[in-house]
Amino acid sequence: MTGRRKVCDNPMKDGACDIVIIGAGPAGLAAGIYGARAGLKCFIIEKGAAGGQVMLSPWIENYPGFPRIEGMKLMETMAAHAREYVQIIEGVEVIGIEPKGEEFKITTSSGQLISRGIILATGASHKKLLVPGEEEYYGKGVSYCATCDGFFFRKKKVAVIGGGNTALTEALYLLSIGCDVTLVHRRDALRADQHLQDTANEKKLKIKLSTILEKIIGDGNAVTAVELLDQRTGKKEKMDVDGIFVAVGTVPGSALAKSLCLEMDAQGWVKVDQNYRTNMPFVYAAGDLVGGILQIVSAVHGGAVAALSAFEDLADPYYTRTRLGEKAVCPLPNKKK
After folding, report:
1. How many CB atoms within 10 Å of residue 283?
2. Which one of 59, 91, 159, 258 is most buried, counting C-beta atoms within 10 A?
3. In this structure, what DSSP letter does residue 56 have?
4. Which helix (H) or strand (E) holds 14?
5. 242/311 Cα distance (integer angstroms)
6. Do 27 and 94 fall into the same domain?
7. Degrees (nearest 5) of the Cα angle 204, 206, 210?
């Protein structure tokens, strides 16, 4: 199907569609485009505004076709493209999903509807330090993604905050592109895998242990320094930096996935196969929710593949062709004796 059309103009009234896509970030928008073009009646539900966290990124320079574009502009362009095929319902939150036979009953803040399948694209959020200056200088030197923003800080001095695998990986990446990097960790030992620590030692990465970042300092336009506290001595230090990369964890938006008892790893990322199918028939997941490389290009890829998998399954169910599919069932709570 190549013709552009809008479907389910009033989904809460019409009551049923083929696919409900939850989340209107890059993965959800791509899923909407590919699902509608495949002939499915689908629409997107987004509790906020279409675009997701990318809307908050000052500049994007690694999305093919756009050498340099504001995050908001990129997502407005992507959302406008999606709206040519599928309706995006903004400001509506999905409260619950209940399997009903071969369909799903979806309860939202604006009503209920029925869908034959679901694509979860609920994303993830970065943990924050909650220190003075963090919000003020977000996008002005404070970043949560070295792959996204590291290029802006080549040959400049930066601090990476954290001591796990993500922090070490981010620090080593920044080091590799020419940044002057100092890793700051609040504990007296790193938590990252040993091979990453060995690499950090080989690369002579500067590390400050038992050190807390207490304040981010700037001139109103950009970050200029950080205030650090050495927990062993109690002394405070001002360290000049051009950028700060916060890597203290990412939290997947997996509440709905948990309610469906989808299979997840220890960190809460939803497990999918190569076609973005979850362990529950006719439920798919894509974007940051499934972990891996948290980038726009990978989210768009996942959303497109998930939509095409949904189309294939609704036409000729994969689960009945390959094995007897059993929907995940949440265990009942233990009854008190």
Report:
1. 25
2. 159
3. G
4. helix 11-14
5. 48
6. yes
7. 135
pLDDT at site 75: 94
Rounded-to-integer distance, Cα 301 and Cα 306, Å: 9
Q: Are the C-beta atoms of 18 and 115 separated by less than 8 Å?
A: yes
Contact indicator for 91, 48 with CB cutoff of 8 Å:
yes
Cβ atoms 201, 226 nearer than 8 A: no
Q: Which of 24, 31, 23 is nearest to 304 (CA)?
A: 31
Number of domains in the chain: 2
The catalytic residue positions are: 145, 148-149
Tokens of 32: 């909407």
CA distance 174 to 159: 10
Residue 17 has pLDDT above 50, yes or no: yes
Paired tokens of 57: 């990124």
140 and 191 inside one domain:
yes
Q: CB–CB of 32/21 below 8 Å?
A: yes
Evaluate if pTM is beyond 0.85.
no
Average pLDDT value for residue range 295-308: 96
- List the CATH number of the domain containing 149: 3.50.50.60
What is the 3-state secondary structure of 110-152? CEEEEEEEEEECCCEEECCCCCCCCCCCECCCEECCHHHHHHH
Residues 65 and 148 in one domain: no
The residue out of 246, 266, 299 marking a domain boundary is: 246
Phi, psi (deg, nearest 5) at residue 77: -65, -45
| Inter-residue long-range contacts of 187-195, CB under 8 Å, 24+ positions, other chains counted | 187/163, 189/163, 190/163, 190/164, 191/163, 191/164, 191/165, 192/163, 192/164, 192/165, 192/167, 192/168, 193/165, 193/168
